Amino acid sequence: MKSASTEENIISEINVTPLVDIALVLLIIFMVTSYIIAQPSMKVALPRASNAEATQAQTFGITLTKNKGVFLNDRLVSEKELGETLSKKTLTQPDLQVVLSADQTVSHGEVIHLLDLVRGAGVSKIAFSVDAK
């Protein structure tokens, strides 16, 4: 026969209150941080069209070699020609993208000069190409 004191000490149920508390705290943290991370933007009601089609953004590759040669999509161009070509393209494609590659021996000032030339042509989407280690 078992005594009454041993039967009272046996826990036969699981307490889920701490688990719910942790889940609610994590939910609150995610809600607060998602509000901070979200980019502020204007809401615009866009018109609908049944014959609309998606446009692909055109990407140009610009390479600056250690000899200070500028290549636009593997074609050697002058800085003036580069600026004129990009200016013409941005008139018809405002979402034009440029990937800028420069030899690691090229000075910082030369890269900034080329970046300024690209920005002056109206290109706002610029990425820098690097090699992964």
Give the rounded overall mean pLDDT.
Answer: 79
Fill in the CATH topology of the domain at 59-128: Nucleotidyltransferase, domain 5
Unreliable stretches (pLDDT < 50, length at least 5) are none
Question: What would you call the structural class?
Answer: alpha/beta
* Assembly status: single chain
Overall CATH class of the domain at 59-128: Alpha Beta
How does CATH name the architecture of the domain at 59-128?
Answer: 2-Layer Sandwich
- By DSSP (H or I, 4+ residues per run), the number of helices equals 4
Largest sheet: 5 strands, mixed
Number of strands: 5
What's the helical proportion of residues? 25-40%
- Give the helices and strands as they follow along the chain: HHEEEHEHE
Radius of gyration: 30 Å
Shape: elongated
Distance between the termini: 73 Å
- Strand order in the largest sheet: 3-2-1-4-5
